[in-house]
Specification:
With 211 residues, the protein is α+β, with helices and mostly antiparallel strands. The chain is built from six helices and seven strands, in the order ααααβββββββαα. The protein folds into two domains: 84 residues, no CATH class; 79 residues, no CATH class.
Length: 211
């Protein structure tokens, strides 16, 4: 079943989505053969530092691969491009939405995690719920319509990315707090009634009742 976001993208692009049956490799053999060709002919021995570098290397490789005669087509793929382009619909005037969106409450460390990487958020957002948007290039966080984080998407694993402005703001807020001043970005956060747990587990008088 299609997710709401993917169905909206298909509608925006005016394309039809064909769902293959589970455990039916023959239904998607054309795609699998193309993927297998890339895995065995393009990927071996290559190293990529970003999606942009992957696309750059792939474009250079395709200049050679698409000039070879394709056995099934009995022609060079490059010779079919103009006919394919003539049959394609124009791109929609409205860009598709961000690929990945979610909301999260910012903790005291003022970082958000996407995949395995952590990205800093301005400490003014601590305790507040922010909206996170990400695509293949950028990670952003919004609070009440304001951007409180913007980072280049990191595709390495287990990295921590810190905006210097966020680090400076956090240092200033800590200094202000320790010196007894009011922190402008302080946010009220509900505090748990810890004695209630003691009463429930018979650790203090009056325990055993429901809270």
């Amino acid at each position: 079943m299609l997710s709401h976001e993917f169905a909206a993208l298909a509608g925006l692009l005016a394309c039809k989505v064909v769902l293959c049956r589970p455990r039916d490799p023959e239904a998607k053999g054309l795609v699998e053969r193309a993927n297998g060709y890339l895995e065995t002919s393009f990927l071996p021995g290559r190293v990529f530092t970003s999606p942009a570098e992957f696309n750059t290397q792939l474009a250079a490789w395709l200049e050679v691969a698409n000039r070879r005669v394709h056995r099934t087509l009995e022609a060079r793929p490059a010779e079919r491009w103009e006919a394919d382009r003539a049959a394609m619909l124009p791109l929609p005037p409205t860009a598709p939405p961000r690929w990945w969106q979610t909301s999260v409450r910012i903790g005291r460390d003022h970082y958000i995690r996407l995949d395995t990487c952590d990205y800093s958020v301005h400490p003014a957002a601590i305790g507040r719920i922010v909206r996170i948007e990400a695509d293949t290039e950028t990670v952003r966080a919004h609070l009440d319509g304001r951007v409180v984080a913007e980072h280049a998407r990191c595709w390495a694993r287990h990295q921590t990315l810190t905006d210097p402005d966020h680090a400076d703001a956090a240092t200033a807020m800590r200094h202000q707090y320790r010196s007894g001043g009011a922190v402008a970005a302080a946010v009220e956060v509900a505090q748990p009634d810890l004695p209630a747990y003691d009463r429930v587990f018979h650790l203090i008088e009056g325990g055993g009742g429901e809270e």
